[in-house]
Design brief:
Blueprint lengths: L2 E5 L13 E5 L9 H4 L27 H15 L18 E2 L4 H4 L14 E3 L4 E6 L16 E2 L8 E12 L5 E12 L11 E6 L6 H6 L2 H5 L18 E4 L4 E4 L11 H13 L18 H4 L16 H13 L10 H12 L10 E7 L6 E3 L7 E3 L17 E3 L9 H5 L13 H7 L5 H9 L2 H11 L3
Helix pairs in contact: 2-8, 6-8, 9-13
Amino acid sequence: MITSKPITILGFGSLLVASLFYVSTFTSSEHTSKSDDYNHHLPAGSLSASNKGADTFLQPFKGIGLEEGLNYRVGQALFEKLWVFAPSSTQASDGLGPLYNARSCAQCHVKNGRAKLDFSENLVFNPVGLVIRLNNPEFGQDPFYGKQIQPFAYPNGQAEANLEIHYSTKMVPVASNTSVSLFEPRYTLLFPNNHSLHPSTQQSPRIAGALIGLGLIESIDDEDILKWADPNDTNNDGISGRPNYVPSRDTNSSELGRFGWKSGQATLAQQNANALHTDIGVGSKWFPSGYGDCTEQQTDCLAQAHGNTEQQDGYEASDKVIQSILYFTSMTSVPKRVHLDDKGIEGQQLFSDIGCADCHRPSYTLDSKIQALPVNETIWPYSDFLLHDMGEELADGFIEHQANGSEWRTPPLWGLAHQKQVNQQLRLLHDGRAGTVAEAILWHGGEARKSKTQFVNLSQSDQNHLIQFVESL
């Protein structure tokens, strides 16, 4: 069955074009062990971008026109803009805080890549780009601190808490009598006002991820994701991917989540607006409060000025601003893959043989119209976009809609080959604890334990070949 999903971008003067996307999708390509299928060097099909070094993740889809390219750069400028406290002389930038995690989207998503974390010392203090999310089963959030801890505050104000991350190491044996050292983080919140979290509040550390191919992910039809769901493991393969249905502020109903570490957001627009509000403290039509994540109990925060102005349609970020940022995040492409030699091709076969592709589904076929760009694209995100139990070592105990405390969405692997040149480091998993592909694999448990065990039992050369393949994506 073919279904349609319109994604409409509303005007920004002459810059934004109505009905940016009109997308319909049909069946996904089933994963296969054939190297010809795996060795696809264009992850976004003909829309794939080239390698531009540190700016590789800041490229629109290949082939867009001059006007679309201008629209893209306008959205990028807003994405990178530093917000300021109200009142200021520039009302278009009013709206920071009063409590916040960063002053711009780009401070967390460095050059559209992941957040940068410095692990040179045993202690990391208030890292920009790693947040502590909060949930309380009774209240939906912490009754005092809200949905997230903000470590920065308005002038002369008091931040909610300071975050300290201490790391210990543990050695894990792998092939040929060798071992890998794993970082094991421990998170400590220090509350200056001595007001601690509610006893039932759950905490979850989350690192900002790379923002590439998001418009393509949104273009995948729900049925193309749901066809791989097997919540009761009826085929007894040990894999029981589950969908996360989450509230949509667009439709006032539940929709399939596909964005965020636990698929907590259904649409890219809502993901963007939520991040603006919670991370930066900027209100919009979906999250209209000018006080960000401040709760009713935080009276000092609510006594501060906000940036809601007539110029911004009564909010801090007008719909035009939101739509322009959406254009930028929707139209960012995925760079071409790194060329594989024969040993890397052996690694892609091993990736399938030990079951990695059972969750990291390689490809989907889209029948899409994106302006005048080509149709019938096959994309290669390497994710099923479903929730999987990843075991106790990665569990955060955090419930997010229908995702439980040990479940995580399968993260897409595309763009992995370029992460180091964008961020000068590779930080994997939900809190960035893994600095290499091997470390990330060795943290896998739960439904992925069987594949991890098979990886550990491979010869060292076969392990290297599989890693070479993953690092080429």
